[in-house]
Amino acid sequence: MHFRLIFPVFFCFLFCLLCITGCAKPDLNTFNQSYYSGDAKKAYKIATSHLKNDKNKDDLLWEVQAGITGFYLGEKNTSKLLEQADTLMQENIQNFAKSLFGNIGAILSSDLNLPYPIYLYEASMVNYYLALDSMSRHDFANARVYLNQALERQNDAKSYYAKELANTQKYLDDVKKANENSSQEQQYLAIGMGFANQESNKNISFNEHYINPMIIYMKVLFELTQNNFSAISALGKDLNYILQEDRDIIKLRQNGDHKHYIWFIIEDGKITSKDTLKISIPLPIDPNIFLNPAAMAIALDSPHGAMIITTLSGGIMLNYAEPKLVDKEIFAKRYSIDNQPATHVFELSNLMETEFYKRLPAIRTRAILRSIPPAITAYIAQKAGENSFGFRGLGILTSLIHRAVLSADTRMITALPNSFYLLRVENDGKMKELKIDETQSLIFKAIDSSKDDIIYIRNTSKNTYFKRLLTSQGE
Prior knowledge:
Layout: H1 2-21, H2 28-35, H3 40-49, H4 59-73, H5 78-94, H6 96-101, H7 104-108, H8 120-136, H9 140-155, H10 157-175, H11 184-203, H12 213-225, H13 229-233, H14 244-254, E1 261-268, E2 273-283, H15 288-291, H16 293-301, H17 303-312, E3 316-326, E4 335-337, E5 340-341, E6 343-347, H18 349-389, H19 394-405, E7 419-426, E8 432-436, E9 440-444, E10 453-459, E11 464-468
Parallel strand pairs: 1-10
Antiparallel strand pairs: 1-7, 2-3, 4-5, 4-8, 6-7, 8-9, 10-11
Helix pairs in contact: 1-18, 2-3, 3-4, 4-5, 4-8, 5-8, 8-9, 9-12, 10-18, 11-18, 16-17, 18-19
């Protein structure tokens, strides 16, 4: 009789793991190895190979990866890929909260089973690269449209996250109402939230950044080269992000100055990425022990004390996984032409960090919710072990198996850079040599001195790619 009880428990447990932990991660490591080892063509093939005729939850991820890579390679499908991503991401952004907490099925499924939840800074960059691609093809009408969309999207980011944070906090407040009369699932959840929020308050500290100055800068440079000064003036306070020298050039050109310039915009490094952080919360077999305020205070003050209480009571572990940030990468520290250094304008990782921590409460809530069924299964296993064999370790063993297979959703657009640099030189009709850390250089052929140009450069560590955005000479 007891054996008949134990086997179904483990069968159900394994089934839960398959449903809750989700499928394997996208093949981002292989993409990154190719992209950052200098083989962008191989990275492009990897990205496009994930885009099949049938719709897939990761289509948005790979459309953006392929679109960015294709831009530097001059692939003809670049605009199509990014336009498809633009259409898809609008739906994903609108349905973000619903996909997280829309129904029980959504809550209990792995984050990896959900459509890729694009960050708003990534969405803005999709419009940004669409603008760059349009400029390189001299489709200036669409370039203006895409730049305006990128500006609008990033300006909405702060209010968007304020709304999402309020929705998440309401759910967290409801969870905290669990008491000894609540179901065991609710009690375990309340304990988990107490530990998780305590950990969060100790470790998270960040400055909020929502604006990518390079989108504003590209808008200004584009309108400047089109002599559209009214569009520049309409940016208002956003012009404070523009270097004083370029603001002076705008005024001079409005007054009839005929000097022309070449702006070098350089993307360097790899944006902050994500990895899995596994967290185990020791739970006594009777959750009422930790619902007692005094016991909870002791447990929160001393995780070791919580583990002792759990072990002595023949308890289990509530395990969950959430993403954590991994340091950004920097490939070069100095870019220069004729000993004139480029200005370090911005780090995209700042935006990534802001949005990551804004989303973390919702992601953590889902992760803890998903941990409840395995915790209950461990509880049943613990009781079955005690009743069948007098063995009190089956619950902990079941918890350890669950911990071993946990994985967080670490998907993100990895083709994006960390740093942006800007360098401007007067166009004197001569060849230009861009030096990178004084160890390597790029030679750019001369163009007509009566023209402006924007040269867009991407340093991927082992290779450097560039596109001329306003002229076709020197490609």
